[in-house]
Amino acid sequence: MAIYTGRGDSGDTSLIGNIRESKASPVFDVLGMLDEFNATLGLILAEIKFTTEARDFLINTQRDLFKIGSLIANPKSTDQSFEWLEGRTTLIENYIDEMEKKLPELRNFILPGGTEGSAKVHLSRTVCRRLERDLVNYFDKNPMGKKFVIKFVNRLSDLLFTLARYLNFTENVEDIIWIDKNE
């Protein structure tokens, strides 16, 4: 079976249920950002050596992002379709708490960077934040699932920030403190 169908050559494509929409529709902005963020997680997984548990968690997060996309693309989804995200959000909070116990207290703003892995995680975090902004904009007109998805994605960006710091910490590389040179 060919990957191409030609059905989208006129600038429209299908949502679940074979509902045709313009590729410029806000729903495809959100689905595209979910895909872009997911790809950054793939890059992180390909280039950073994680524990089996951390690796499995990130792969499952990629699966979560696909599921969120499929629910957003399905006009029959309801708020209840997204309730499973509560448990995933709690799990993210637990991972953040575990890493923070090992990290020095954060007292300053930090610049993205340090190790190569940390820098890549920071880049993924910024894509996650852009996804969050796109989701907020989308959910202003399509609120189905909003409270679950926004909280989950917000927590993911917190996790990535903490993970970037943690990667520097485990490599004995200090975070770069932001200093206002104009003061």
Offer a concise description of the structure.
With 183 residues, this protein is mainly α. It is built from five helices and four strands, in the order ββαααβααβ.
Provide structural commentary.
- 61% of the residues lie in helices and 7% in strands.
- The protein is elongated, with a radius of gyration of 18 Å.
- The strands form two sheets. Strands 1-2 form a two-stranded antiparallel ribbon. A two-stranded antiparallel ribbon has the order 3-4.
- It has one domain (25-176): Hypothetical Protein Ta1238, Chain: A.
- It has helices spanning 26-47, 52-72, 85-102, 116-141, 146-170, and strands spanning 12-15, 19-22, 110-111, 176-177.
- The longest helix is centred in the last third of the chain and has 26 residues, at 116-141.
- It is mainly α and 183 residues long.
- The chain contains five helices and four strands; from the N terminus they run ββαααβααβ.
- One of its GO terms (molecular function) is ATP binding.
- InterPro entries: CblAdoTrfase-like (IPR016030), CblAdoTrfase-like_sf (IPR036451), PduO-typ (IPR029499).
Write out key terms for the chains shown.
183 residues, mainly alpha, Hypothetical Protein Ta1238, Chain: A, two-stranded antiparallel ribbon, 4 strands, 7% strand, elongated
List the helices and strands and how they pair.
Elements (H helix, E strand, L loop, with lengths): L11 E4 L3 E4 L3 H22 L4 H21 L12 H18 L7 E2 L4 H26 L4 H25 L5 E2 L6
Antiparallel strand pairs: 1-2, 3-4
Radius of gyration: 18 Å
Mean pLDDT: 91
- Give the overall form: elongated
State the secondary-structure class. Answer: mainly alpha
Distance separating the two termini: 63 Å
Oligomer: single chain
Spans where pLDDT lies below 50 across 5 or more residues: none
What percentage of amino acids are in beta strands?
A: 5-15%
**Structural domains: how many:** 1
Largest sheet: spatial strand order: 1-2
**What sequence of helices (H) and strands (E) makes up the elements?**
EEHHHEHHE
Tally of strands: 4
What is the CATH domain class? Mainly Alpha
Pathway: Cofactor biosynthesis; adenosylcobalamin biosynthesis; adenosylcobalamin from cob(II)yrinate a,c-diamide: step 2/7
Family: Belongs to the Cob(I)alamin adenosyltransferase family.
Protein name: Corrinoid adenosyltransferase
Enzyme class: transferase
